[in-house]
Amino acid sequence: MSSIYLLTHPYPAYGAGLFLKTAETIMSQNYALPKQVAGYTHGGIPFAYPPLAFYATALLLDAGVQPLEVTRVIPAGITSIAFIPYYLLARECLPSPRRAGIAALIATVTPMLLQWHLSAGGIVRAPAFFVLLTGLYVGIRLFRHGKRSTLVAASVLFGMILLLHPTYSLFFGVSYLLFFLVENRSLRGFFSGSIVAGSGLMIAGPWIAQVATSHGVSAFTSAAGTHGGLGAGVIMFFERLTDPFVSFPAVILWYTLLCFGLYYFGTRRQYFLPFWFGISVFLMDEIRFAFIPGVMIITVGLTDIVPTLHTRLRKSNRTVTSHVAVPALVLGLLACLGILFVGGHSVGSQSSMPAFIDHEDTEAMEWVRSETATDTEFVVLGDAAEWFPYFSERTILVGPWGVEWKSPDAYQRQKESYITLSECHTARCLTNNLRSQPGQPDYLYIPKGRYTVRGQTADQPDEMHLSLERSDRYRIVHENDGVLIVRTLDTD
How far apart (Å, rounded) are the C-alpha atoms in residues 156 and 48? Predict the structure, then answer.
């Protein structure tokens, strides 16, 4: 899948401009931990992200690796090797090594596990994914066998995940609690879990202390209150389950097999994997975590229920054909759909894995960097805004990226303003919405033709260009096939 992604994406999917800007800031401060990252809203944003992946990215950039190649190749490579520990984890959770192997194969083509790890932000998420899967494998063996070597490894891995990504850390901790309850509800199991938690916090302690000193503990609580928060009601539970259908309706096949697998485990009163899946949907805002156990459930649905259904429908005896050929055909269909997803050819109205920028964007951002003053501030319409501060070295006034570390209210205001402005198709719409902003931009960056807003496809009509030309508030100062750069004029 990684090779398909690289062949079909000359520019990486989604965004990683903030991550690159953070790594560049670390480089500029001689690898000291920064307090602020400039460019994202007026005054910048607090740097409260776990730092490990940013330091690794900074080393790559410092070694001369091109930033776009870092965001294309590194996520693809790490995501590929992450399915090795996934196979080992599946071998512990499923009845046979054969099923574990099939689970690993299905995982490599599952959109929910690929979307946010192969894409540009995978420079942070893919390492966290790899460490998470390794930690889950070590963890289940720790609570089953209690060996000292697994205790040490689990402690180090928990420290690493704390230094990589907050939500992956949460899933790591919740899964370990579940492993304790299912595998080893003893005093020894309790102490093992406590040692892992305490050791991991000690490893991450210096970073946690510095962030708390620089920005207060509220930086962590603020971020926890955004992106859906923790937990879900009934409506949110089903919304999270249906999220993947928006960009790729063909995931119905994965969900059908998931239902088959849930039926298999339910009839045998084996509730560990179904409960792990359900609690993951409930607690985690991102559905990708639930599909770590979910793919194992899907596997059993494919290997054990699909052949049975085939023989019943054909009203024939169970044969080698129904036992092997039919699951193999379904597995092949899953692979074909996975290739379509990774290649950006969604079976639906929206493009899957869209790139937020292209050649016209990088050319326009280069023009901005060379032709505008360093203190100019922009409002950027569309998802190119996420990359803009890194490539242009200028500030965007509107955008939610990184603002979660300030407060949930600030994050929500920025997100709503960004969406509203990005959906404008006339100069009047821009003017009306800019008036409500606390700061006024020197320039606007406006996409032409097709672009994305929060990953969803939008189209900028020719009406925008005509209305800007007729307006006495704006003047087009640069244009290429994909972008308009517009100066705002003082007409008051």
Answer: 21
CB within 8 Å of 17: residues ≥ 6 apart: 386, 387, 388, 389, 390, 391, 401
Query: How far apart are the C-alpha atoms of 467 and 223, rounded to whole Å?
Result: 39
Per residue in 416-469, pLDDT (tens digit) is 999 999 999 999 999 999 998 888 999 999 999 999 999 999 999 999 999 999
What pairing do the DSSP bridges indicate for beta strands 474-479 and 395-396? Answer: unpaired
CA separation for the pair 221, 305 (Å, rounded): 44
Selection from 328, 353, 323 nearest residue 341 by Cα: 353
Q: Is 187 helix (H, G, I), strand (E, B) or coil?
A: helix
Number of other CB atoms surrounding residue 338 within 10 Å: 23
Measured between alpha carbons, how far is 98 from 89 in angstroms, rounded to an integer? 13
The pair of structure tokens assigned to 352 is 């899957």
Is a pLDDT exceeding 90 seen at residue 407? Answer: no
- Produce one character per residue of 386-400: b if its CB has 16 or more CB atoms within 10 Å, e if not: bbbbbbbbbbbbbbb
Read off the tokens for 460: 């900028």
Q: CA neighbours within 13 Å on the CB side: how many for 61?
A: 22
Residue-level pLDDT at 356: 96
Strands (E), 340-482: 377-380, 395-396, 443-447, 449-453, 456-460, 474-479
* DSSP assignment letter at 403: G
Question: What distance, in Å, lies between the first and last C-alpha atoms of the chain?
Answer: 55
Per DSSP, helices labelled H in 184-305 are: 187-215, 218-224, 234-242, 244-247, 252-267, 272-283, 291-300
- Residue 71: CA count within 13 A, CB half-sphere: 24
Q: For residue 390, what are its two tokens?
A: 């890194």
Tokens of 444: 């606007």
Taking CA 467 as the corner, what is the angle to CA 463 and CA 473, rounded to the nearest 5 degrees? 155
Contact 40, 31 (CB under 8 A): no
CA angle centred on 437, ends 434 and 441, rounded to 5°: 65
Domain ranges across the chain: 2-342, 359-488
CATH class of the domain defined by 359-488: alpha beta
Q: Tell me how far apart the alpha carbons of residues 215 and 225 are, in angstroms, rounded to a whole number.
A: 16
Task: Using the structure block, give the residue that is written with the tokens 């931009």.
Answer: 441
Note the pLDDT of residue 233: 60
